[in-house]
Amino acid sequence: MKRDSQIGITGYGAAAYEKKTDRTLFSFLTEAGRNALDSAGLSFSDVDGLAISSFELPPDNTVTAAEQFGMSISWAYLGTAGSAGPVASIINSVHAIESGQATTVLCIAGDNYDVGGHFKLMDNFSRGLRNYGTPQGFGGANGLFAIIQRKHMETYGTRIEDLGRISVGQRKSARENESALLRGPMTIEDYINSRMIADPIRLYDCVLPCAGAEAVVVTSLDRAEPGKGVRVVTGYERHNHPPMEIAPLKGGWELFADKLYADAGYGPEDMDFVQLYDDYPIMVAIQLEDLGFCRKGEVSRYLADNSFDWEGTVPLNTGGGQLSCGQAGIAGGMLSVTEAVRQLRGEGGGRQVAKAERGLVAGYGMVGYGHGLASSTIILEATR
Amino acid sequence: MNAALDYPVPYEDKDNAAFLTAWREEGKLLLQKAAEGGKPFFYPRPICPYTGSRDLVSVTASGKGRIVSYSFVLRPNHPAFNEEVPIILAEIALEEGASLLGRIICDDTGRIASGLAVELLPSAEARRYPLPAFQLRAEAE
Question: Please, which residues have CB within 8 angstroms of residue B93's CB and are 6 or more apart in sequence?
């Protein structure tokens, strides 16, 4: 990505989340795409690049999606990094615009699951999991991330009551977000006492699988309405790191964190908010370490010393994140982007962060034999 | 009742047939290794992930290892496991240097801890499980 690039996000939108639906995947994808284009003041005919991230898209792909949408495009991108894919799709959209492959890219992420559908997904997620996880009753992602969380707790002394501050803080923000599926009050006691799903993973560590979609428009900032453009400052991705480890306590972000901040010219302490990938609080904690918000192994203290709602000391997943909004499959990796754009445009409503000029958005996903294989991060800036 | 019939089973192909057959018929855990260099690895694949070599040999593991970390799965994905919860799922470091995800068969989860020694189930008990399964191994004080 070129330095001082004047490419960014000029529109964002979503399709409302549903716990159960009879709507089709394309219905969600098109609604989110339409809303993002409306937000950008553009129409489908203005778009010449399309990026889609969706577990349920096969047997379709980006090109057949273009057929559904009636679009003629010069650049097509299909997310392959699970829920690190939407952030990666934005990085790659910027590259495509820089190199002249496209001028305006619509990036959409979405799925239509319910709880049962998500279990079936995990049982067939990859050949490695299907063959060597599913026949053991591995418990899907819950069973795997429980192994990671226990290792983090036993290695570094990470405490349940500190991890819970992530779920509790995000829920407070969700109470200001009418789109969140889960908006009831949550205390740290509620978190600790929530039922065990895969010990030590509790119910309030887990996301609610649902149906929905999120989308953004990536183009040159001079096409944005005044003050509504959000600059993509820099971004990196990393996949399958570290190789051949089943339950690592790092996820790849640590390899590019220094480059991110060198590109931006400022560091984690200068972010006005962060949107991290919250499939589980333990992975948010690991991102905080890997992305330099605290030192490796010291996240429990960092969590205890800070608060994470939209008006907390570290505004985190300011719309409530997946833990409160629901996880619409890969849309979970774009929910963070649309919320960041909303904040940077000053459109956060009751959860608007006071001075929202710089934000960091991280993606994570594609669970392999033991852990998520894919990580990604972008830094975004307001142009207001 | 033969519970094994109800478990989801691995898809057998040319990459994993030797491993699956050795477990199913002999209760043995086969690892792969590059003929030169690298170290034993799991799960089965057509190339050594350490060296890139396609010249692979089989290594019969001792079946002994240690628990690195673990979870007690109370909500398994597949209903075949619902009567067996909690499923004890562990990251196990084998003596040979490879790691894998394995079930530990134990009626008392209170006995499970990271660092404990495990071994493969005896072959008579092993047959019902579609993949190598383990039990706690007593160690001399």
Answer: B65, B66, B68, B99
